[in-house]
Every structure is written in structure tokens, then in C-alpha cells.
Amino acid sequence: MRISISSKRNSVIMCRATPRVMEGVIDGKRGVIVGAHSVSLADLLAGIKAHPEISRAGMILCHNGIVRESDRSGSKHVRALRVNVDRSAIERIRSWGESRPGIVAVAIEAFEGEFQVGDDLLFVVVAGDVRENVFAVTREIVEKIKSEGVHKTEFYDD
Fold first, then answer.
1. From CA 111, how far away is CA 133, in angstroms rounded?
2. CA distance 90 to 135
3. Nearest to 140 by CA among 75, 87, 82, 94
4. What number of H helices and E strands is found in the chain?
5. Coil, helix or strand at residue 55
6. Tell me: the pLDDT tens digits for 36-60?
7. Which of 51, 58, 60, 136 is the right S-S partner for 105, CB 3.0 to 4.6 Å?
8. If you ran DSSP here, which 8-state letter would residue 54 be given?
9. For the chain, percent helix, then strand, then coil, each to nearest 5?
10. DSSP classification of residue 116
11. pLDDT score, position 39
């Protein structure tokens, strides 16, 4: 894992890890599943706390998106999920978040691959001055990631 922090106000915090590869079944076929990663939410939080201007923050908010057992409507049982990540969109969204008023630092890790119910999909950590700014920006970041940064395919039980 590599965490780099610049001393500029709007720092770049990048975390990339080599995923742990395991065997599994998706869409009825046995094969390799990439989905268990060595980057943890604690790693991202530690990177944010090490930011040179963290003293300006009064709050750090963490989001941990996971695979749920049903589709959004609750009518279909999800067996597995495949996620493709647009890394350049994620970086644009992270940079946008850091440019918002009151925000000190943003870290995002969007996992790519095939996942099972309960697996981690997305970590977002936002540090900022007051909760009104941090809550609003975190929500906007998550919405932007869902609409611009990732593409998901759900696999359902028959």
C-alpha cells in the first residue's frame, strides 16, 4: 500500500493496494474473484489523520459501502456483484470534494472486481471544519461516485 500526502491545503491522498485473490463462484462459474483488499478503512483514516492541516478539521466522516443481499427494490436476492471503477472519475470526484468550503482532505478507495454479500465496495473518508460541511460533501461524493465513478452488475438467485 502507498499513501502519499502533500503539504498543500488540498492534498492528494492516494491509496492503492494489491487485491487478495481467492477462488469463488459467480454467475454459476467457478473462477477467481478479486474482492478482498488489503486497504482498510483504518488505513484511509490514518492517512487523513496524518494530513499536515488536520488541525483545521473538527470532524472526520467515514462511509463504508458494502454489498447488500437484495436489489434496491428488495424484490430480488443478490448472489454476487461485479464492479468496474473509472479511476480518473474517482480522482476528479476526490479533487472536487477537497475544493469544497471547509473540507481539509478526502480519501476514496473504490474496489473493483467481483464481490459477495457483505463485502466492502467503497470507502470514503472526509475531514472538514464543521459537520454541516462534512456531511453534505460526503453525501455528494458518494452520489457522484455511484453515478459517475462506478458501474455495477448484480447477479441474482434464480
1. 26
2. 19
3. 94
4. 3, 10
5. helix
6. 456 899 999 999 999 999 999 999 9
7. 51
8. G
9. 30, 40, 30
10. -
11. 86
Closest CA to 117 of 57, 76, 62, 58: 76
Amino acid in the structure at residue 22: M
- Look at the block and give the residue holding cell 502533500: 6
pTM of the complete model beyond 0.85: no
Q: Please say if the pLDDT value at position 143 is more than 90.
A: yes
| pLDDT tens-digit series, residues 61-93 | 999 999 999 999 999 999 999 999 999 999 999
Domains of the chain, start order: 2-156 (3.90.1170.40)
DSSP string across 131-154: HHHHHHHHHHHHHHIIIIIEEEEE
Amino acid 37: pLDDT: 59
- 96 burial (CB, 10 Å; 0-12 / 13-18 / 19+) is middle
